[in-house]
Give the backbone structure.
Amino acid sequence: MKETILRVEGVSKRFGGVVAVEDVSFELGRGELLGVIGPNGSGKTTLVNLITGFVKPDSGRVIYQGRNITGKMPYRIAELGIARTFQMVRPFYQLPAYKNLIIPLYSPRVRRLRGGKYGERDDVAVDLLEEVGFERDSFVPYKVAASLPHGYLKRLELARCLALRPELLILDELFSGMSMSEVASTLPIIERLNEEGLTIIMVEHRLRELFRVADRVIVLNFGRKIADGPPRQVMESEEVKAAYLGSEAEVPDA
Amino acid sequence: MRYRKERLDRGIKARCEDIFALSSWREILYLLLPRAVPVLGLLVFPLLKGIVGLYWEKVLVITCAIGLLALSWDLMASVGLVSLGQALFFGAGAYIAGALNQAFGLSPLITIPIGTLGGALFCTLLLFPVLRLRGVYFAIITLILPLLFARVIETTKILGGTEGMSGLSPLPGIWFELYVPVVALLMALFGFRRLINEDYGLVLQGIRDNDRAVMSGAINIYKFKAQAVFMAGVAGAFSGAFMTHYYQFVGIPAFAMDYSILPLTCAVLGGVGSFAGPTLGAFILVPLSEVLRAFGTLRVVFYSAILIICVVGLPEGIFHYIQRKYHQFERLVEVE
């Protein structure tokens, strides 16, 4: 049995009368790659926000590495090694791409783990960008973020997370808005990170790509967890089929 | 035949963004003059007091005081804290310096530093609980606080009540009086400009643009906001502490709306976010208001009209407009 890195215990959150997440529980082992899927509005992003502290749960607990992190400030949770991407990319458009990474590199966590002063951080940032597929030779890391295509900005988000040296990486619809070729080039990066031992939660709409890399998938519908297991098995479930029926997401035969 | 305006960066600017390779005297002067001319001008102006007269030297001191408040406003705006209450910093510095001088007879050389740091610390502690507010909500709090203090002093009659504290120690000598505000303004201007371009400053600007991303980067944004408020407070409270001894008086007007609104106006007129803009704004608005005294009661009308024309005509701010003109050629090119 793998060591549990994250345990979510019956978290619920309602916004006014709307139940966004209801009594969701799951465990995540170190090194696992967990997919979170569900139709639009099923509470996937709220679940991410609950884990990362951007939203405080009404009830339930989130335990990370044996520590109760429920309701902690987002920067404290990030400090403990949980990094997340945002669905909406909002980089610092007027800055060069690599300068966008200075902020996580300036955090106490990274300075403790990595050291580095003014100037050295720039080199670390460029290395990180190369890692997520920015072509160093063509000076892409030095281009102003405003001039980069959306796919690069998404990968900039990924690099921003990796800068933190996370132990748990949460990708909130990283592939949305990416072209097929951009997805194809990003997927191996995620696979490699996972092979290197990084625990990853992927919230995704692109099931075909997700199922290629995910060990396990949980399915949310109307805020409730309706399935949990290996991709193929989950998609067999009648309840999951019903949830997806009529929605635009395709159900691939894995 | 239709024409389109084409903008081209000048050679030195086009080659690289902010690291310049200097290859000739012309290029060195190109970079140095826009910085050196205002600095030298400010340092020389007090020496000319025989020619320009003491009246305009006094205008210089007031301009520097307002300029410091405008810089302080701009630093807070750089972290996304839009303040409508620079008078809070000014008043806190002014009253601390004034009270120390009256109660213990301390010299201005001691009360000004204590007023500066104490005022900044006081304001930071006071604003700390509301640093999580953003935009209008934060602005409203800052707008109300100085008015609140003015009423508290008025009703409780502490710290001199409505009469204020007069007969405070004068500043030691005319050169101190003229040069200290000039040097303080230059230090704040170049210090803040330097700071905002360091990694530290990038974090501050990051908080303004996208505080959620900064928080998910494991950075305690409230700590950074508090530090920025403290630094802004130092500039603002110094202005207040200095002016207390300059006027040898401190009273409720130290918390007046003028000290909140004027710095904001300077910043908007000059150009937000560059520090040079708000300073330039102060050097336009304060002397302008003096020049317009000749118009008597119509002064405010002309003042407002000029302000409206500038803000509507150059919404980016005068400094950014000048900077763009300096760094770029413009020419008309034909388009089909």
Q: What stands out?
A: Chain B touches chain A at residues 198-200, 202-203, 205-206, 209-210, 212-221 (CB under 8 Å).
